[in-house]
Structure formats: structure tokens, C-alpha cells
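Title: Prediction job returns without error message
Component: structure pipeline
Severity: low
Priority: P3
Assignee: unassigned

Description:
Job completed but the reporter wants confirmation the result is attached to the right record. Sequence as submitted:
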Amino acid sequence: MRKTAIIGLSLCLSLGLSLMASLSHAADKWIVAQSPNFTVYSNVNAKATEAYVRNLEKFRYIIGAFYGLSGPDAEPQPRMRMYFLSSRSDLKQVWPRMDSDVAGFVRICAAGITGFSTYEGDTIASASKVQNLAENTSQHFFFHEYTHIFMFQNSQIFYPRWFVEGFAEYYGTTKILNDEAVVGMALSWRIRELNSPGALSYEEILRDAPSTRRPRTNFYAQSWLLTHWILSDPARREAFRHYLERRSKGEDAVVAFEAAFSVPVKSLSSVLWSYMNSLKATVYRIRDMPDPKISLSPMPVSADKLALWDAASMTCIPRDYRTALLEKVQKEAARYPDDAYAQGVLARAEIQHGDEQKGLAYYQTYTAAHPDDAEGFYRLGQTWYLMSVHKLFQPGETFDSQMRKAREAFRKAYALDPMNASNLNYLARAAKMGPDYPDDNTVNAAYQAHILAPAVRDYALFAAQLLIRRDRLGEAADVLRPLANDPHGSAAAERLGGIVAAIDAGKSKAEVLDMLKAPAAKPNATDDDEDGKKDGNT
């Protein structure tokens, strides 16, 4: 899969947008919308849901076009799963610890990546003039997070933390109006932050000082302004390229910045204040962009409660919520014993948080009736794998025989859907142990899972571990480097940064493997456990 640098911005775009097609009626229950790159489950009306999905496709195309990654020659990527919800209270069903003022979030877990955002009225494509643009918090949130995912998927450059966050904020404010895209808008709350106490020095920001990782600082607003200043001018984009080259060779970040931009860092704050006073967004006229095909289908009545609980069971929910969630799913699914959707939700919840043996008969029957369903074989393989790991053996079966059945199911799922990163990750984990472990196929499966979903820490760690075992330490460092540079500054990111530094310092394979195997620090009380009880990952 192609990787590129996220600095070759072209100001001469020839893209295309089509007019939004509207439906003649509104759905009053759950619907599912399918487009080339998104699967969106929604309890919002059908017209707003289609407009939302179309906007997601437009944004994906537009940001890719800036970097030569859109069009007929673009490499396919996994379809992203999203939930478009009618109210913020719906989000609590998925993330109980969520603050009431949150408009959406993205969960990046071993089970995959899922986004959640809320409906904030028909502001997505209703404005006809740039001057009439309204701020849509939910849309901004998703565009911001999707830009992070875009950077992960398309670049292995070790960008500074401020640019990672500033880049996402720069594109996250994009507005799409009929045949125009407005890029680089300033959100009101970012301007307020820049005018409030808590400013950091740009020496701190450039050097990634500990102060930039504290909450309630202006790090995000200042990072956005610095990034906006760079991306708005071709000469400064070229200077940024030179800055990255100097920084990658170990030069001090402040020294590298001053040499590349010919701006003293002590003067940077005043330079950026002056820039902000004349800051403008850029309006691009869009032409000839493919019109994405979007299909909408009703979901069964049982989805009323089960849709969100199904979403929760497939994300990294808190440990103390799992038992209660499983009990709610069991009780609700019992109301619909003949409903295929309800029984599928129950089987998935049992596999993730209950007794995976209860999912075995369901998926054996399901795959026999649906031999072309990749998801069914993936879940069947997951069931056999977890039963083996947890030493739950069917009559006449052994660890090896059940793991062999897991591999068979994962291979069938891969043949039907090669873009399922979680399936590839499980396929690599189910590999047969022996003197040649890990063989090339195992390493390739783990690495491809990482390439398809590079933001998932679990995939990166496992791929890096296998690469190190094969004496490919440099490649392992490249896999871990973006996650070690997490702009949110988590303890896990610091740990990965230490492993990358050890590889760069020439530590031995055994030493680096010991660092990977060492238990990670316990998450903070507010953190959700990512991997969960049922992943069976080691």
C-alpha cells in the first residue's frame, strides 16, 4: 500500500461534487447506509443520513485529492463503520463514561475502528453561500478524527506532535457546499483559546516539552495556527520539508525550524498573531468528482436497542460495563428468538464478553447457509480461536485441531474480504507454532493487518514483534513510530517511544523483545481498556 508525505499540497485542484440526491420519505427507525468507503448505521431520518454519508465520501475524496490519493488509480482501503445518531444521549449507550457535552468520538480497538457522531440539524449541505456557514461540532469532530486516520494510513513520516494535531484541525474545519470546498476555516472556540490564558512558548511546542501534554493548555489551538501558517504558503510548505529532514537527522527542533524557515522562534508568536489577523480560508471549486453510490436499507425493529449495544460490544468498552452490557443484550435478544439480526448481535456479544462457545453453533449454521459472507467466517474463526486460547474444547477436539479450524475460517474470510484487518490479525495469531515460526505468511498477515489499520495499537505491536523475531528491527521501528508520536501523549505512546529509541540505538533483538513483552503501565482511572477480555491477544 502506497505511503506518501503529507506536505505536497497542491493549490490547483480539479475535483468534482454532485448534487445531493434526496429520498422522498423519512425513516422513523434504524437504517443502514452503504457507500464505497463507509457503512453507516443511523437512527436519524433517511434524507439527513444520505446527506451525511455523501458528505463523508466527499471529504474523503477531497482530502485525498490534495495529496494525489483520490481518483481511479487510488488504492482501496477498508470501509469504515460509523454510527450517525439522533442525540448525544445515544452515545452513552456505547461509552458510559462520556461527558455530556461530547458530540462524537472514534473508538480504535483490537476489534477495529468505529466512529460515532450526532445529528446537529440540516447544516451539512443546506448553506448556499460561504458567508452562511454554521459551525457543526459533530461534523468537525469526525473530519478531524478522519484526518488523523488518513495521516496514519498514508504516511510513515515521523511528524512532530504539533503538526499531527494541527494537520487534523486544519482539515477538520472543512465545509462542503454544493460544488465548493472551504478549507482552513477558523473555529470560534480555537480563536477564543488563542486569546485566553495558558499560552505555551513555541520553543516548548517545537521541542515537545512535558508542558504541551498537560490538559487545559492552548497546545491544540497554537498547533492549528502554526500548521495553518505553513500550509497556506508554498514556500513555507517547502521550508517545512527541509525542517523535517533536519529534524529526522537529530538536529534540535528549534535550531532546525529557524534554519528552515529563517524565522527566529522567539519571534514566531508575533509572526503568527499577525498572520491570524489576516487569516483566510481557501475556497476550492470542485469539478468532475465521481458521484458515490449510496444505498439505504431499513433495519429490523429489534435494532431499536440492540444496534447501539452491538456497537458497544465491538468496541473497547470499560471492564465494569461488560457484564451489564451482555445481560442487556441477552434479555433484549430473548424477545426476538426468530430474528436473525437479534441473534447475530447476541452471538457477537457472547464471543466478545461472555461464553464464546454459545456463538459456535450460531456461526457454524450461519456460514453453512451463507457461504459467501466474509463476516460470518471471520466470526467463526474468532470463536474457534478464542475457545482454543481459553482451553474450551469441543468433544473430540484439541488445541491444535480447533486452531486449525480457526485458520481455515480466517482464510475463507480473507478470500471473500481481503480488507478485514481484524481477520488478518487473527490469522497471524492463529499461526501454527514450530521451529520456523513466524514464517513469511504469518509475518505478512500481521503486517498487512497493520497497513490496513495502522492506528490500531494492537496490530502494530504484534506486527512489530514478528518483524523483530525475523531480525527486521528497522521495519518494526517504522511500524511503531507513528503510534509512539500520539499527540495525546498517552503512557502507551511513551512506552512505544522507548522501544523505538532502543531500536534506533542499536539494542539487540532479545533486548527489544523483552521491552515489548514487559507489562504495560496500568491505564488511568478514566481510560477504557482497549483490548478487552475476549481478544485472546498475547
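Comment from assignee: result matches the submitted record. Strands lie at 31-34, 38-42, 80-85, 104-109, 112-118, 175-177, 180-183, 282-285, 295-298.
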